[in-house]
Write a structure and sequence with these properties.
Blueprint lengths: L7 H7 L2 E5 L24 H12 L1 H13 L4 H10 L4 E7 L16 H4 L4 H14 L3 E8 L23 H19 L6 E5 L11 H15 L5 E4 L4 H11 L9 E9 L3 H4 L3 H8 L13 H4 L4 E10 L1 H4 L5 H19 L2 E4 L14 H6 L13 H12 L2 H19 L7 H20 L18 H12 L9 H19 L2
């Protein structure tokens, strides 16, 4: 029996994600929003800012200040620009454990009066989800500031300078409870458009116990919400994370898809700084090579999909000092990243969208989009009429393209393996479902399946979407020895539809 067509939730969660981070609203960073910090603040973290305000202004005034800041995260003009100009269909939203409310702050540095500042924080987050959804923009919940800190940076919420999540039973347990709470909130409704939950942001490299904790949290979330995608920080080791995720995404299971979040910056390491802007740009075209020979074959290896959850147009001054026209090279740098992430990842989120010093320079999604450095996938630039017209033209070629694909497949195996048994009907069935699914994604806005005035979406998380469809149709390796034919047909059907649409 054929599976049900893609739902609105499927479109939000599995389409290619083009967008930005909304940093320094629910997890403050002084360099972005210095207006939230009094001169008396002891450091640059969220906790430093809120303590200074409480000491100077008291609880009521501080709570009002923070709530006003949250409510200003995205105004109507911001959402208009994101959806209409930037063609953004997703944002990555950093939150902290304190964002969930005072009940999650007990016995942490945010306990006591500090916690009362966050009484309405989670409600503010949920309101933001709804406003984004109504404009066709999904939201990835990025658990950015964890108890103790997944890394030693101030964006973990405090200025402790230590990553004390790892190896600390209390902190790990509290972090798990926070993540399960978020999954339950999505499951219980009222949070349409949430595209996934990220377990932590920028986990320190080579920390002991990270993958063991991932194992336990994945099980806990699966008990609360069996379908919400779960995103993992790769801990600055993409290759290792790819291997781990493949084992978590076998083709015969319909539990939560596990997705990698990797970050790409070119301004921090000595290797970044010592080479020129031109050399940094040239590096982009080989990025994400760790995925090679791992994705594209769910039947044999399991599924692996990754997003570039943070990137920018920033290079170090040492790189710029080595010559070249800075404005044109910055634009080329951004365009190279846009093209590479669209070709090799399932989505990307620029760091970041808003700051006190708009439009943000090389850190600004708005500035770099307006200057043509950051470019959306072509399909997102289509008008609703363009979508309908292109889909209609493609539809007229369905039988022609199906027959050509099946003929090529059969002839190849007849030529290379004469006399061997195959089940080519599976290829045909896979092609048809791939074509139909890709068409639903592309037409979703024009047909009113998801909000949005224009644009056509592509299946971005193809590996994990193919895994879902394989499990639903009984094509996994544990179910048949010929599911590989179905998968090849499915991928070819998606690809043929995209080619016919010109995207």
């Amino acid at each position: 029996m054929a599976p049900s067509p893609p739902t609105a939730d499927d479109i939000f969660r599995y389409r290619y994600q083009h967008g930005a981070n909304l940093g320094s609203f629910f997890v403050l960073e002084k360099w972005l929003t210095g207006s939230m910090y009094l001169p008396s603040a002891a450091g640059d973290s969220e906790l430093d800012a809120v303590k200074a305000s409480l000491s100077t202004s008291g609880l009521d005034a501080t709570r009002d200040k923070w709530q006003n800041h949250w409510s200003s995260a995205l105004n109507d003009d911001d959402l208009n620009w994101l959806s209409n100009t930037a063609k953004c269909n997703n944002i990555r939203l950093p939150v902290g454990y304190f964002t969930l409310g005072p009940q999650f702050c007990t016995s942490t540095p945010f306990d006591g009066e500090v916690a009362q500042v966050y009484t309405n924080a989670w409600q503010s987050v949920k309101q933001l989800f709804q406003r984004c959804h109504d404009r066709g923009v999904g939201v990835l919940i990025d658990f950015h500031a964890l108890p103790g800190g997944a890394n030693n940076q101030i964006h973990s919420g405090t200025s402790s300078g230590r990553a004390e999540l790892w190896g600390n039973a209390f902190n790990l347990d509290l972090a798990t409870k926070c993540l399960v709470f978020m999954a339950q909130e999505v499951q219980n409704g009222g949070m349409a458009g949430v595209t996934g939950i990220q377990l932590c942001n920028e986990a320190d490299s080579n920390v002991q116990g990270m993958y063991e904790w991932y194992d336990s949290v994945i099980r806990a979330i699966n008990s609360a919400h069996r379908s919400i995608p779960i995103y993992l920080s790769d801990g600055w080791d993409l290759a290792r994370c790819v291997t781990y995720v493949q084992g978590k995404n076998p083709g015969n299971m319909l539990n939560n898809p596990i997705i990698i979040d990797t970050h790409k910056y070119y301004c921090f390491s000595e290797d970044d700084k010592k080479i020129s802007a031109r050399q940094n740009i040239d590096r982009i075209y080989n990025e994400l090579g760790e995925l090679d020979n791992h994705d594209g074959n769910v039947f044999e290896h399991g599924a692996v999909s990754a997003i570039v959850g943070e990137y920018s147009c920033v290079l170090d001054e040492r790189s710029w000092s080595q010559g070249g026209d800075r404005p044109s090279l910055t634009r080329e740098f951004g365009q190279a990243q846009s093209q590479r992430w669209q070709k090799r990842s399932s989505g990307c989120a620029f760091w970041t969208f808003k700051m006190d010093w708009m439009d943000g320079g090389d850190w600004g999604f708005k500035e770099q989009t307006n200057k043509g450095a950051i470019t959306p996938p072509r399909s997102l630039t289509f008008s609703a009429q363009d979508v309908r017209s292109a889909a209609g033209n493609a539809e007229r070629r369905t039988q022609e393209l199906h027959d050509a694909a099946l003929k090529s497949h059969v002839e190849y195996w007849d030529r290379t393996s004469p006399g061997q048994h195959f089940e080519h009907d599976r290829y045909s069935q896979g092609w048809s479902l791939g074509w139909d699914d890709a068409k639903v994604f592309f037409r979703a806005r024009a047909d009113g399946l998801v909000p949005g005035e224009s644009g056509g979406d592509k299946i971005g998380f193809l590996d994990v979407w193919a895994r879902k469809r394989m499990a639903e149709t009984g094509q996994a390796k544990s179910q048949t020895g010929y599911g590989w034919e179905w998968e090849q047909g499915f991928r070819k059907g998606v690809g043929d539809l995209h080619s016919a649409l010109g995207i």
